[in-house]
Design goal:
The protein is built from 10 helices and 14 strands. With 370 residues, the protein is of the alpha/beta class. Strand 3, helix 4 and strand 4 form a beta-alpha-beta unit. It binds 4'-deoxy-4'-aminopyridoxal-5'-phosphate (PMP). 4'-deoxy-4'-aminopyridoxal-5'-phosphate binds next to helix 3.
Amino acid sequence: MSTDVSVKRVFNFSAGPAALPLSVLQEIQRDMIALPGVGASILEISHRSSAFVEIIEDARNRLVNLLGIPDTHEVVFMQGGARLQNAMIPANFLTSKDETADYVVTGNWGKNSAAEVPFYGVLNKAFDGAEGSFTRLPEAADLQFSDNAGYIHFTSNETIHGLQFKQAPANGDVPLVCDASSDFLSRPVNISEYGMIYACAQKNAGTAGVTVCIISKELLERCGDRNPSYLDYAKVAAKDSMLNTPPTFSIYVTGLVCKWLQEEVGGLEAIEKMNSDKARLLYDVVDESGGFYVVHAANPEHRSVMNVVFKMATPELDRKFLDEAAAENLTTLGGHRSIGGIRASIYNAMPREGVEALAGFMKDFAAANG
Ligand code: PMP
């Protein structure tokens, strides 16, 4: 069987699970039968083996290195996706049912996160963009924080609506908890400004199965003894993410993605520049289309660099766009079923040539149908 997969690959704009760097796929393929020096594959070895302990430590060290994670914070690998974190966050960080958490809701994912709070405490929506169909982020004056919130939760990049914060919506020293599922590792972040950042891996950091949680030791002290053991961050952290059998393959892939970022891309500043250049290619076509393409985000400042979300005048035209794009090997461009239209997810692993191909297609499509 040929190992040259590049000729058969499409440009995959999936929102997640999403495209992986080709060199990561090739390394997985090369080592799938037997990891060098181990003689068995990653799928077959014990999580207690020295080979796997080395793999999980390597993934953790690479994350620490890439993001400059200070030793005030722990890296915890969890299962259950970002969804489980939505429930674990209030369960662990609200110490009683009377305590309030502030949620800045700028899209479906923030709405889903907020919905878990009432099981454990009091929910205050410091901002709710639902009335404006999630077309904008809050200005400072829109934020109605409570006086003594346990933490503030926000979603740095709303994957469905294509809205991305350039700066976190902070309130003094109230711990910030960020769902960074769809822009993790896409740009540098000052971890010390956060109580917790979490991200499911299947968009920008690997494959489904693992969620990376970076949690301050201060917040870990709040976990108390209120939750079942796997649902207690402090207990999982104390066992180095091996309270139970961790998602070994997914952790291995996250390590490889970090290695790619470090050794082939040149770190997070470099990927940030590549990402913003890619996004500009698409937004420029939109802005020069004379209104043929309309971005969901009302304010250009709020546009996501990861998920470019737009539509045309009619759903029929959107459908035609998707069909013709797929014929050109530009796939998985359909918007989320809740809002329709088009969504181009251009995470770290989407090569610039894929975005150039899409930009070219968009220009031709507008010229032929405008
Ligand atoms: N948060 C955000 C911002 C997401 O984009 C997603 C997945 N699309 C989730 C949470 C849910 O992640 P999971 O399916 O891993 O639970």
